[in-house]
Amino acid sequence: MNPGNPTIRLNSLKRLNQLASEVGRDVAFMEVCGTHTMSVFRSGLRSLLPKNVNLLSGPGCPVCVTAQSDIDMLIALAVDHDVIVCTYGDMLRVPGARGSLEKARGDGADVRVIYSSMDAVFLAQDLPGKQVVFAAVGFETTTPATAAAVERAKQMGLDNFTVLASHKLVMPAVTALLDSGEVHVDGFLLPGHVSVITGWREFDPIVKEYGLPCVVGGFEDEQIPEALVDLVQMVGEGRTELINQYPQAVSEDGNLSARALVKKVFEVSDVRWRGLGTIPGSGLVLRDVYREFDAQARFNLVQPEDREPKGCRCGEVITGAVTPPECVLFDKGCTPTNPIGPCMVSSEGTCQAWFKYHRVGVPTRHRRVLTDQGEIQCKPGAGRHAALEIKP
After folding, report:
1. Which of 95, 120, 165, 385 has the smallest set of CB atoms within 10 Å of its CB?
2. How far is CA 292 from CA 119, 163, 299, in A?
3. Residue 361's CB: how many other CB atoms inside 10 A?
4. Going by DSSP bridges, is the β-strand pair 214-216/131-138 parallel, antiparallel, or unpaired?
5. Contact 68/97 with Cβ under 8 angstroms?
6. In a shared domain, residues 94 and 144
7. What is the pLDDT of residues 49-69, one digit of tens each?
8. Which of 307, 334, 350 is the last residue of a domain?
9. pLDDT tens profile 70-112
């Protein structure tokens, strides 16, 4: 993270503490973006927050919210079909029912890490005798790149390029969380990257329909405290507004060209989310005119049932229901080198952020969890070096 201006950060933190003391109660805000989550941990900001200000991590990590069934279809492509699977690095080690893409590659499958969607297009062009499948994952930030790749493949007349699309929309997930009544927050720190594409007006309903203050924030060392100052101040004054604290990158309407391209290639659909189930109108599928580039249709893939790893609580972590230390597997079987769930795999995952920068939490109550290894019990206060009793 860019250290930014330490004077600005110090002033923001002083102001934040002053305002928090005036609120006189505990307040909780959810940061929706995985980059915010990692930035908060990496900078040490959590340790500097007022005691009555709590940050919850939301469903803002694209790898973490990808349904287990989507992961299993991707692994099935790599293992059961003579194709080249192209993926971004974060997807490589996400475990599925049959291992991971990394394991499949070790067993002989042709799985390649790429750095842009166009890499997959050009690979298909260079290898006309091979089918190339691009694992398209992400929110509004990365969807335009996938749309551009599909449009380019169509213009080139490629018949050996497809995408397995797992693109999702942020706003339906936020409203689903709020409608569930299970997550109680006083406001939202909204994602700057997504807002570059959608525009800040996308989040108006959170303010108008749910009466919660929102701030679109940047990711630098001084920008997050400034956003939190606005949120705490609005709570203290009883105001509900949508403030754009990232004007250098985010406009009211966003990137109109990118949005138009996405609308041309994709249409809104009901899709599955890890931890949230199927959310109406929360994802994107290829329009009929581009259906020839749909890997699920071309290879007759049947989406299996979602089967989460036993004991893994990633679904609860990404909805702010629990923190990583409340999962009995955290740092005791699930680590970045041996991940059991996607929140520990992704560089934007909440569990990986806690593991790297904040391994100080302890279980708050006795936990009994059934895992593949048997029954694991962890007593309160045992900490990260807890003695676990495993009963087969």
Report:
1. 385
2. 19, 10, 11
3. 15
4. unpaired
5. yes
6. yes
7. 999 999 999 998 989 999 999
8. 307
9. 999 999 999 999 999 999 988 999 988 888 999 999 999 999 9
